[in-house]
């Protein structure tokens, strides 16, 4: 891909490298020779990485290039000039370009635009490349939050709907890889799964069973993903449910107790005092008074 920027003529099999486009791209303005030299140097480095390195840490060698503002601007201009959004199938060095621009504190914004295009098209190889790059780059680079969120959102939607029509968009292996690379995505996916499968389940061991997990593994996973113990998680979710039924429904207190798994209103009363610091009746009454005051002011 980079060769287009610098004007180097390569054999036909080099067509799939973006760096070559950088080399051949129009280098208007001074100092043209210096920019062309930078493009050629970048081309050599990326070519070496493509053929000799599988370790992400070796991509740190691109960091000096990421600090060259004119070079990164030229990369962005070339990306924008492409007739279509770049893909790994078209440009084998696309991942290196993602990392290069991700390390640039001045020219990273285009990555969010590109990631959004990949999300809309459900382009899994490209989204996975972003996962790998972000996993490696993200610590200490808060400016990448937008692209991180875009990629997380893409895989979150794919987790919910992995099939479109009769076509499988993403495999379970690819989803798990993304969730491992992007911790926030992993946490969101796990908690959503637990809430869905454990709806109205207020016992930690039963919840583990509903999720198809051995209780010990479930406890460790919940602690890792949420910061809560399994029992604390169950209580927290039960508090949310109790509040919802007290504040947003007309169910009697007996019905609320039954719906949220309590044997009696007395048990519900004790639970509310312990975790909501008031009785169920008072919680509902205060909420109704607050609503009346709001309506009156309006």
Looking at this protein, list some descriptive labels.
mainly alpha; 17 helices; elongated; two-stranded antiparallel ribbon; 298 residues
What's the Cα radius of gyration? 27 Å
Mean pLDDT: 89
Number of strands: 2
- Give the DSSP E fraction (strand runs of 2 or more residues): under 5%
Helical content class: 55-70%
Query: What letter string, H or E per element, gives the SSE order?
Result: HHHHHHHHHEEHHHHHHHH
**Strand ordering within the main sheet:** 1-2
The number of helical elements comes to 17
Largest sheet: 2 strands, antiparallel
Walk me through the structure.
- The chain is 66% helix and 1% strand.
- It contains 17 helices and two strands.
- It has a two-stranded antiparallel sheet.
Break the fold down into its secondary structure elements and pairings.
Layout: H1 3-6, H2 21-24, H3 32-52, H4 63-66, H5 69-81, H6 94-102, H7 109-121, H8 124-137, H9 145-160, E1 163-164, E2 167-168, H10 172-181, H11 183-197, H12 204-210, H13 215-226, H14 230-248, H15 253-259, H16 265-275, H17 280-297
Antiparallel strand pairs: 1-2
Helix pairs in contact: 6-8, 7-9, 8-9, 8-10, 9-11, 10-11
């Amino acid at each position: 891909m980079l060769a287009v920027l610098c004007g180097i003529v390569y054999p036909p099999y080099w067509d799939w490298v973006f760096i070559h486009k950088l080399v051949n791209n129009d280098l208007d303005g001074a100092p043209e020779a210096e920019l062309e030299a930078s493009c050629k140097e970048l081309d050599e480095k990326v070519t070496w990485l493509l053929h000799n390195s599988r370790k992400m840490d070796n991509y740190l060698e691109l960091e000096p290039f990421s600090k060259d503002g004119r070079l990164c601007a030229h990369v962005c201009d070339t990306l924008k000039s492409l007739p279509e959004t770049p893909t790994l199938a078209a440009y084998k060095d696309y991942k290196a370009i993602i990392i290069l621009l991700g390390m640039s504190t001045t020219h990273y914004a285009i990555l969010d635009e590109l990631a959004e295009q990949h999300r809309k098209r459900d382009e899994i190889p490209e989204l996975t490349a972003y996962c790998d790059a972000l996993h490696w780059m993200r610590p200490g680079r808060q400016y990448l939050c937008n692209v991180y969120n875009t990629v997380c959102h893409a895989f979150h939607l794919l987790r919910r709907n992995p099939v479109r029509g009769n076509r499988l968009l993403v495999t379970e292996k690819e989803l798990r890889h993304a969730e491992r690379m992007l911790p926030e995505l992993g946490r969101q996916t796990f908690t959503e799964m637990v809430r869905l499968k454990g709806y109205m389940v207020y016992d930690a061991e039963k919840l583990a069973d509903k999720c198809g997990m051995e209780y010990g593994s479930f406890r460790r996973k919940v602690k890792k993903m949420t910061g809560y113990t399994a029992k604390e998680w169950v209580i927290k979710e039960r508090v949310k449910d109790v509040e919802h039924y007290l504040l947003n429904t007309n169910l009697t207190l007996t019905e609320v107790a039954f719906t949220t798994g309590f044997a009696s209103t007395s048990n519900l009363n004790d639970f509310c005092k312990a975790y909501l610091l008031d009785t169920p009746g008072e919680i509902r009454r205060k909420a109704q008074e607050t609503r009346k005051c709001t309506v009156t002011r309006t």
